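Hi W., the pyridoxal-5'-phosphate complex you wanted:
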Amino acid sequence: MSQDAPQRLAEIHSELAKELAACGRAAGDVTVMAVSKTFPAEKIAPVLEAGHRVFGENRVQEAQAKWPALKADYPDTELHLIGPLQSNKAADAVALFDAIHSLDRLKLARVLAGEMHTQQRFPELFVQINTGEEPQKSGITPAEAGDFIKACREEYGLEIAGLMCLPPAEDVPAPHFALLEKIARAHDIKKLSMGMSGDYLAALPFGTTHIRLGSAIFGPRG
Ligand SMILES: *Cc1c(COP(=O)(O)O)cnc(C)c1O
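Structure:
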């Protein structure tokens, strides 16, 4: 019962291989992001030691406190920002993260473009889409997605690697994943950040490329 994070991750990988095969996808199609938010470095280190290299954090400051030391020990680590990003933290985010999944407004697009140019560091950018159109949640509405993606590309010269969504907790997630996939296809966007501990299996048939797993790997958050 008292499994540790590396064991849980190994089980997720074998389950994932089976489930991907069942929907006709290759095992390498999906990246498992270990969401280490709230967990201290000593809980993260064993997962790095076991060979895992892709991690997600939702707050810039928390990541700055934990990750520079861990990245020094494991320089090939890929760190993804999955939480909302304030413009005044954009420089720090560009310096630390390898991907940002929460591009959700034009001001942020402009500031990120400037920082990426200044620092000559180019984290992959994912546009967050508020598929459930929830007022309390960040993200571009599905109806505005096309104009937003176009503005990011044409006005700010940004490459949009992917789209991200966080379906409403009370909804069946599949229609949200289907909608995100549809928007991505319409705009020739290759990557899809969708699926968390509770719903990642439902994201596999809709082409997810990045599943963001926190509690399934690290256990419940305090
Ligand atoms: C915390 C978080 C996750 C991981 O949640 P779990 O349910 O623990 O897997 C995924 N995505 C985002 C945006 C998060 O903030």
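The longest strand covers residues 31-35.

W.
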